[in-house]
Design goal:
The structure holds 2 protein chains of 2 kinds.
Chain A: E1 3-9, E2 18-24, H1 33-46, E3 69-70, E4 73-74, E5 96-100, E6 109-111, E7 114-115, H2 118-125, H3 147-157, H4 164-168, H5 175-186, H6 195-208, H7 220-223, H8 231-246
Parallel strand pairs in A: 1-5
Antiparallel strand pairs in A: 1-2, 3-4, 3-5, 6-7
Chain B: H1 2-19, H2 26-38, H3 48-78, H4 93-96, H5 98-116, H6 130-137, H7 143-170, H8 176-205
Chain lengths: 254, 210
C-alpha cells in the first residue's frame, strides 16, 4: 500500500505546530498503525530527519498509552480498538491519513503526537481509590457482590485511561473517564465508605484540570476502545446529586 | 440546565394544550385567554398570577441561558487548538445543534411575544381578540410567517429531543435500559409537542380554523 500521511509536528510545548505531509510507500496491510509509523520513523532517521514522536507501550491494547486522532476518529475508524491494535487493512491504497494528537487544554502537547495526561492522575488522586487494610487477599466469599453490580463495575474497570473520551468530546470533557473510575468503586461494597466524598473530590479535580463540562452529547462511548457505556456518567450524576444533598465535601474519610 | 429546562418544558405542555383550544371556537378560545389573566382571582388582584408565572419563566430562561453559556465557554477553553480533521460527531443532530438551536429559539420567542402577546408585529394586534390575532397571523398570504413558525417549532423539537434525554441523565438516569427508555420518551415527547404546536398554524392556513 502507498499512503500519504499528514502528521501534526510540534517541536515542544511552546512551538506552534503544523501539519506536515509524508508519503509512505510499501506499507503491508498486516502492519499495525504504530508499525507503519515505525517504518516512517526509520526512513526519517536514515534521511537525517527528526522522527515523529508518539506514545506507545504494550502495543496490545491494554496499557492506554497510544492515542492518536486518525482522520478525525480517536484511535482510528475501527470501534473498540486502540491505535496499536488498528491494522493498515482498515485503510485503502492511496489514501491520505490525517494524524493529530488529542486536543485538550488539560492534555498539553509534549512533542508531535505525545500529550501529557497527568490531569487524569490528578482526578485519580482526588478519590479514585479505596482505603482498605492491606495484607493477604481476603476470602472472596466473605463480601458478597450482586452479579449485576459486579458486571457493571467490571465494565467500568475496563477503562485504560487513554483519553480518547476527552479527545472525541465536543466539549473536551473527561466525564466518561471520571465516571468509569468512580463507578468501578462505588458499585462495590469496598467502595462504600468514601462513596460520596469521592464523587465530589473527583468531579472537582476534573473541573480544576480544565476539562469541559458534559452535555450528554454521546461522542465518548463510540470512541472508547473499551466501550465504556454512556450510562456510566448517569451513575456519577446520581452519586453527585446524593453527595450534594448530604452536604459531603471532598475530604476523603470525612 | 435540567431543572430550568424541565420548568420550561412544563410550560410548553401547558401552552400547547391552551393553543389547542383554538379548535373549540372563537368564544371559547377568547374566554380561555381572558381567564388566563384572571387566574387566582379573587385571592390575587388582577393579572398577578400571570405576572408571577411570567417571572418564574423569565428566571428559568435566564438561568438556562447562563448555564448554557458557562458550558459553552468551558468547552471553548477546554480545546484551544482545533482539530485539522474532525468528522461530524457521532451523536445526534439534536445534540450537536443545542447551542445554536437555543439561540434561534430565543430569537423566535422574542418575535413570538411581539407578535401574539404585545401585538406589535401582528396584523390585527387586538389584545381583546386573541382568536382574531391568530387567524390573521397565519392567513395564507402570510405564508412566510407560517414557514418561520414551522422552522422555529422544529428547532424546539430538536432541542427537546436531546434536552429531555439529557435532563433525565443529569438527574441520575443510570441504567442502559433506562437510557433506551429515556431516549424513546424524549423522542415521543418532542414529536407530540411539535405536532401539537404545528397543527394550529396549519389549521388556519388550510381554512380549518377561520
Amino acid at each position: 500500500m502507498n499512503l500519504t500521511l499528514r502528521i501534526w509536528r510540534q517541536k515542544g510545548p511552546e512551538d506552534k505546530g503544523r501539519m506536515v505531509t509524508y508519503p509512505v510507500n510499501d506499507v503491508s496491510p498486516d502492519m499495525s498503525f504504530l508499525e507503519m509509523l515505525d517504518v516512517l520513523n526509520e526512513r526519517l532517521i536514515l534521511a537525517g530527519e527528526d522522527p515523529v514522536a508518539f506514545d506507545h507501550d504494550c502495543r496490545e491494547g491494554i496499557c492506554g498509552m497510544c492515542g492518536l486522532m486518525i482522520n478525525g476518529d480517536a484511535h482510528g475508524p475501527q470501534r473498540g480498538t486502540t491505535a496499536c491494535q488498528l491494522h493498515m487493512r482498515q485503510f485503502k491504497d492511496g489514501e491520505t491519513i490525517d494524524i493529530e494528537p488529542w486536543r485538550a487544554s488539560a492534555f498539553p502537547v509534549v512533542k508531535d503526537l505525545v500529550v501529557n495526561r497527568s490531569a487524569f492522575d490528578k482526578i485519580i488522586a482526588a478519590g479514585g481509590y479505596v482505603t482498605a487494610p492491606t495484607g493477604s487477599a481476603p476470602e472472596a466469599h466473605s463480601t458478597p457482590v450482586a452479579k449485576a453490580n459486579a458486571d457493571a463495575a467490571f465494565e467500568s474497570a475496563a477503562c485504560i485511561g487513554c483519553g480518547a473520551c476527552v479527545a472525541a468530546c465536543p466539549n473536551g470533557s473527561g466525564m466518561l473517564f471520571t465516571a468509569a473510575k468512580l463507578t468501578q468503586l462505588s458499585l462495590l461494597p469496598q467502595g462504600q465508605p468514601e462513596r460520596y466524598t469521592r464523587v465530589i473530590g473527583m468531579v472537582d479535580a476534573h473541573d480544576e484540570a480544565g476539562f469541559g463540562g458534559c452535555t450528554n452529547a454521546g461522542e465518548c462511548t463510540p470512541a472508547c476502545p473499551k466501550g465504556i457505556p454512556l450510562n456510566t456518567i448517569g451513575r456519577l450524576n446520581r452519586d453527585y446529586l446524593a453527595a450534594t444533598a448530604k452536604g459531603a465535601n471532598n475530604t476523603p474519610g470525612s | 440546565m435540567a431543572v430550568t429546562g424541565i420548568l420550561l418544558a412544563l410550560f410548553l405542555i401547558a401552552h400547547m394544550l391552551g393553543n389547542l383550544k383554538v379548535f373549540t371556537g372563537e368564544t371559547s378560545f377568547d374566554h380561555y385567554a381572558h381567564w388566563l389573566r384572571d387566574i387566582g382571582k379573587p385571592l390575587l388582584p388582577g393579572v398577578w398570577f400571570l405576572w408571577i408565572l411570567r417571572t418564574v419563566l423569565v428566571v428559568a430562561v435566564v438561568a438556562h441561558i447562563v448555564a448554557a453559556t458557562v458550558l459553552a465557554r468551558r468547552a471553548r477553553a477546554a480545546r484551544p487548538v482545533k482539530y485539522a480533521h474532525r468528522k461530524k460527531v457521532n451523536g445526534s443532530y439534536a445534540a450537536r445543534t443545542m447551542r445554536w438551536g437555543g439561540v434561534i429559539i430565543l430569537l423566535f420567542v422574542i418575535y413570538h411575544l411581539l407578535d401574539l402577546t404585545t401585538g406589535t408585529l401582528n396584523p390585527v394586534g387586538d389584545a381583546s381578540k386573541p382568536y382574531g390575532n391568530v387567524v390573521a397571523d397565519f392567513a395564507p398570504e402570510r405564508w412566510y410567517v407560517t414557514l418561520f413558525y414551522t422552522l422555529a417549532i422544529l428547532a424546539v423539537g430538536f432541542h427537546l429531543r436531546h434536552g429531555a434525554f439529557s435532563a433525565f441523565r443529569s438527574l441520575g438516569q443510570q441504567t442502559p435500559r433506562g437510557e433506551r427508555r429515556a431516549r424513546t420518551a424524549a423522542l415521543i415527547f418532542a414529536v407530540l409537542l411539535c405536532a401539537g404546536y404545528l397543527v394550529v398554524p396549519f389549521a388556519v392556513l388550510t381554512g380549518l380554523v377561520s
